[in-house]
Amino acid sequence: MRKTLIITAAVFASVLLAVPLVNSKIEQYARNKLVAALRERYGSDLDFSRFDVRVLPSIRVDAEKLAFRHHGRRDVPPLIEIRRLTARAGLLQMFQSPPHIRRIELDGLVVTVPPRNQNKEEKKAGATRERTQHSPVVVDEVRCEAAVVRLLPNKAGKDPLTFDVHRLAMRSVGLDRPAPFTAALNNPTPPGEIHVAGDFGPWQKDDPGQTALAATYEFNNADLGHFKGIGGILSSTGKFGGVLERILVDGETHTPDFSVDAGGHPMPLDTMFHAIVDGTSGDTLLQPVRARLANSTTIIANGGVVKTPGKKGRTVALDVTVPEGRLQDVLRLAVKSDKPPMTGGVSFRTKFDLPPGGGTVAERLRLDGHFGIDSARFTSFNVQEKVATLSKKGRGEPEDDSAADSVVSGLGGRFKLAAGIRSFSGLEFNVPGASVRLNGTYGLLDEALDFRGNLRLAAKASETTTGVKSFFLKLVDPFLAKDGAGTVLPIRVGGNRKAPDFGVALGGAN
Question: Which of 140, 319, 333, 482 has the highest local Cβ count within 10 Å?
Fold first, then answer.
């Protein structure tokens, strides 16, 4: 009996001594297999400062400072960097088909998608291989804090396209399937949080930029006041999809109190847009944006938000068209008066160029286009009265007391805007009996007027007045008549918008 007890104790002691050794061997084997699987999974070399595996009583992986180098490349940042990784799995879960990992927690994840370095045939073959392989393991849940996704552009010197994700959760993550995910992204300017939900993957290890995604987003309470020169609280919803290096976005925005500091009048602005986020260049192409200002003026824009050579930031470069709108809507954005200076129908087309940098929108914005206005009326009684008087004299009826038709017609011309000064060339308008052609400038900030041009009247100069003045003007009628007009006078317009000053330009028109 005593001999049996001694033998049993010896066996038990041997087992106790062997368990750590066997466990250590198992853990070393599991560690090596896991590292090899990760390298294969992402087509990358794997570096790390720590990679520990425990198999009893449950499987646990703890790793630090992981770096996956795509195809071993050292000329670009690592494909994936992880500051800290923790994984959990039950022993029974590992015997499922495929095996399951219960949970992975990531901290400090940085994904840097490299530019393309394969020809079309290689990428096509690689994509086919990715689609046909099966997932060796499925992760039930992945959670991550503080993640960054960067897409490196094809051309050197361009800034990468960067997405900052401060909260990410994924489910059922496997090599052969898209993974459902939710994420919260910090939007730096205007500040706010974008909530996203959709599907990501499967991961394309041969060409990560071709990894698919599809999701919806919601962005609320974005304060546009963080952009110099504009204001309002914006909300936006929409969807996006495609692949990492080329994302298509369809969405809409609503800003009930949009304003520009040049005018300062809040107005509702709603937009619908289709955009292409090009990961190869970092640019965003807008094709198109359809906006509705004050529920009555339609604005259509095509263009993009593109990198500015030699400058930090991006330029908004657009072709803008207003096919049919209300002049008063546009003017309320641009002038500070509580009442717009003119009403009527407006159409215009312009190049819109807003570079990055300091200063207000009015100071930085550059425009180059042409416009037309129909059935225009001035809202200032003094200005409208002067227009009515001009019409009476132009018709040769200076003492006509009847209500004159003083609607301005044919108003249009070319315009440019730079450094807060709007310049006009070939500016024309007509009232019954008279037409005006002007060149000059208007200051958006100080509202100063400086125009010169010609006034053409149907009537002779002597017919624009009565009494002694009419008698003496008959002497100059032959000299002022020109090109079929009764009178042609060089004129100037000065002062400011509230108090314009009209007169004869003694030095002649520009």
Answer: 333
